[in-house]
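Q: Got a minute? One more chain.
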Amino acid sequence: MLAIIIPFDIRDVNADSQSLKTLPQVVGIKKAKIIGYILLFLFIGLECLKSNLSMSIVYILFGISLVTGLFIKFTSVKQSRYYTGFWVEAIPIIWLGLFMLFLGN
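A: Always. Here it is, folded:
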């Protein structure tokens, strides 16, 4: 979830008060994106350490991480509000849909 916040912080980097000290304000947009990718790799790595991990869950995790990584990559300051307000916010809904599709009984 932390990686999903980064596109919102990048979008609002010029509108947010400097006193907020968001990640892109502190380290810059490029480094914030790199931190987002690192968080995604940590997420995958920690999830793969679980003992009861099925291949369906692995595919879902890789898929969601790939989608999130692509959203982070293509996020910019001059992005449409619909990009983050709709598409990035849809990631948890897509995640839930994939779980229900592949693991629902």
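A: The chain is about 70% helix and 0% strand.
Q: Perfect, thanks.
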